[in-house]
Amino acid sequence: MSVTVRVPAKVNVQLGVGGLRRDGFHDLANVFFAVALGDEVTATAAAPGAGTTLTCTGPDAGQVPLDDSNLAARAARLLAAHHGIEPDVHLHIAKDIPVAGGMAGGSADGAAALVACDALWALDTPQETLLALAAELGSDVPFALLGGVALGRGRGEILESLPVTGTFHWVFAVADGGLSTPAVFHECDRLREAAGTGSADTDVPTPDADPALLAALADGDPAALAAALTNDLQSAALSLRPALAATLAAGTQAGAIGALVSGSGPTCAFLTKDAEAAEAVAAALTASGTCRTARATHGPVPGAAVRTR
Ligand code: ATP
Question: How far apart are CA 70 and CA 62, in angstroms?
Fold first, then answer.
């Protein structure tokens, strides 16, 4: 018996980063937006005592750890432990989300594994419990369960769904090689220190959601959303990977109405006025040689959900 769950990647349409807290985290004002680019996780029943095993296919499969650190395997074990059962399951990840790309691919797989194992083991875990288990796995995991568009506060794990009208069209330029999220936050702190503003939470104002951005989402207005896109990690990602400036410029030149680094990067995200423009921008970016590949997609889309069983 098998259950396949489809789960979306995310782009942060706003990523406001506060100062470094004493616990090592930063306060965030994080507007997550789920896009149709996604992974599929299939959970297959395994014999008693088999434990959790893992396989992965896709262009970046070689970079996905297949040991105990994999978020999908950790999710299966966490759910089993919560219910006091054995985590006997085989998980297969069909990976389409760029790895270490700032699109929360590992978190997505963690959320998908929670939903897939919950269905396979017929546990019927309440959504609030799944969200709490997801938050234990990582700051970005609860959003992959929820999907749509949501404001994340705290480390990003305190979530509130936001109203959105219509569909927005995106292009993602995938880079060669990833960027480590902790390294990008560290670079953000270093740049703040170097600029003399300080990097502690006592130096940097606590970020808040931008009312203009929330209105653009609620109104379904791509031009207003494009004007409001912000990512406080962008200068840090560009500092670690200066070549991303050329990717951002190529997409804008090709007709994107908005451009930003996705999360901690190095994937770059481009907003376009419609689906046709997204296809044209993706083709121009791929031809530009400033990225490995570029993909046209859309959103928002729902969170992790069973596709087949
Ligand atoms: P985020 O945007 O949440 O910071 P990211 O999209 O930049 O993350 P991921 O693709 O989630 O990055 O990968 C970050 C690291 O997580 C990888 O380098 C890998 O070592 C580890 N990892 C654990 N589980 C997975 C998984 N299922 N898929 C991909 N990477 C995983």
Answer: 13
Can you tell me whether residue 96 is helix, strand or coil? coil
- Cα 78 from Cα 76, distance rounded (Å): 6
Angle 275-288/244-253 helices, nearest 10 degrees? 140
Residue ranges in the chain whose pLDDT is less than 70: 156-157
Cα–Cα distance between 95 and 109 in angstroms, integer?
9
For the full predicted model, state whether its pTM sits above 0.85.
yes
pLDDT at 154: 82
Between CA 175 and CA 303 the distance in angstroms is 25
And the tokens for 212? 């203009």
> What is the atom index within ligand 1 of the atom nearest the CA of 69?
23
Binding site per annotation, positions: 98-108
Residue 299 CB-density burial (10 A; 0-12 exposed, 13-18 middle, 19+ buried): buried
- Work out the burial of residue 40: count CB atoms within 10 Å of its CB; fewer than 13 is exposed, 13-18 middle, 19 or more buried: buried
Using one digit for the tens of pLDDT, what is the confidence trace for 17-40?
Answer: 999 999 998 999 999 999 999 999
Catalytic residue among 10, 60, 118, 232: 10
Distance CA 93, CA 86 (A): 21
Bridge-based pairing of strands 26-45 and 52-57 is unpaired
Task: Give the separation between CA 160 and CA 136, rounded to whole angstroms.
Answer: 18
304 lines ligand 1 (CB under 6 A): no
Q: What is the pLDDT of residues 89-120, one digit of tens each?
A: 999 999 999 998 999 999 999 999 999 999 99
